[in-house]
């Protein structure tokens, strides 16, 4: 076997950063040493792995073929090293990315449970929109993602974690809060404050309401849920958010669930996603397994959530 783990590490870093100099910084190597390792790997394999496009190093089709296999080898090497060094089978770092709702309401408890049982696992967590989660996992920036709604990309595997529902709410002093039923005509006339396009919540909402209302008055769009909640609780707006995000303000009386037509009582799933071409990752498997166990052990789980 003529190539080394160091050369594969350099290849992986250049693929991640799109730059030899950035890869060198990431690996704490000189730029010349990084270039030399990459050149040696390409020479040994007899194929170009990158082509320069402007200032970026772009993978050739050979590089695209090699990338998941190199990731797999480096992941296994890390597991071997950490397992022997720490004497723990589940050790090392895993990069997780999640959309807002699971990141805020579910992952803190899950990570805490794993910290208690597997103290040598290091879980990094980023919070992004669903579109960015999908892109980050596809681009190898993350090992595991958690999204809201469906994923139809064949390059990704998906496993449903739990169920969720979206809820249309207004402030307690909004005129609609006093109605036994809110009609489609009333919803069309309302001022809406919604999540930004690209978020899982917005995708699910749009797919449900667009066949029913042609011209929705979307007054504002925001990325951050607390901004939306505050605007709706204190202004003449309505919104549609995950029940988990609005439950405390419903319980306190600041927000009221509107009785809307059945087609707008939206149920969805929260799911784990990972690349289909990646080998089984024991750390990711641990997170998925513990996530399912957590939902089974919580009597008032998201599966049973309902605004009713």
UniProtKB/TrEMBL annotation:
The family database entries (InterPro entries) matched by this protein are listed as: LysR_HTH_N, LysR_subst-bd, WH-like_DNA-bd_sf, WH_DNA-bd_sf
Q: What is the lineage of its organism?
A: Bacteria, Pseudomonadati, Pseudomonadota, Gammaproteobacteria, Vibrionales
UniProt keyword DNA damage present: no
Which family does this protein fall into? Belongs to the LysR transcriptional regulatory family.
Q: Report any Pfam family annotated for this entry.
A: HTH_1
Question: Which Gene3D superfamilies does the record associate with it?
Answer: Periplasmic binding protein-like II, Winged helix-like DNA-binding domain superfamily/Winged helix DNA-binding domain
Superkingdom assignment: Bacteria
The species this protein was found in: Vibrio olivae
Q: What is this protein called?
A: LysR substrate-binding domain-containing protein
Reply yes or no: does the keyword Aminoacyl-tRNA synthetase apply. no
Q: What keywords tag this UniProt record?
A: DNA-binding, Transcription, Transcription regulation
- List, for all copies, the residue spans of the domain called HTH lysR-type: 1-60
């Amino acid at each position: 076997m003529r190539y080394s783990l160091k050369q594969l590490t350099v290849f992986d870093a250049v693929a991640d950063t799109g730059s030899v100099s950035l890869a060198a910084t990431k690996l704490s190597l000189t730029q010349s040493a990084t270039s030399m390792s990459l050149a040696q790997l390409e020479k040994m394999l007899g194929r170009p792995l990158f082509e320069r496009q402007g200032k970026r190093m772009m993978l050739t089709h050979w590089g695209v073929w090699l990338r998941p296999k190199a990731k797999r080898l480096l992941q296994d090497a890390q597991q071997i090293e950490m397992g022997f060094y720490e004497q723990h089978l589940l050790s090392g770092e895993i990069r997780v990315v999640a959309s807002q709702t699971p990141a805020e309401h579910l992952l803190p408890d899950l990570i805490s449970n794993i910290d208690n049982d597997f103290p040598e696992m290091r879980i990094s967590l980023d919070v992004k929109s669903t579109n960015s989660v999908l892109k980050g996992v596809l681009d190898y920036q993350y090992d595991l993602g958690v999204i809201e709604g469906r994923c139809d990309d064949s390059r990704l595997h998906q496993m449903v974690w739990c169920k969720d529902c979206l809820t249309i709410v207004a402030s307690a002093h909004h005129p609609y809060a006093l109605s036994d039923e809110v009609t489609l005509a009333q919803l069309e006339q309302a001022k809406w404050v919604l999540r930004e396009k690209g978020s899982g919540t917005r995708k699910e909402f749009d797919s449900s309401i667009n066949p029913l209302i042609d011209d929705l008055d979307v007054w504002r769009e925001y990325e951050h849920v607390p901004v939306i909640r505050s605007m709706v609780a204190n202004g003449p707006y309505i919104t549609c958010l995950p029940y988990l995000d609005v439950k405390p303000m419903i319980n306190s009386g600041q927000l009221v669930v509107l009785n809307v037509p059945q087609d707008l009582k939206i149920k969805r799933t929260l799911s784990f996603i990972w690349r289909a071409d990646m080998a089984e990752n024991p750390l990711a498997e641990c997170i998925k397994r513990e996530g399912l166990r957590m939902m089974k052990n919580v009597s008032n789980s998201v599966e049973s959530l309902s605004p009713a």
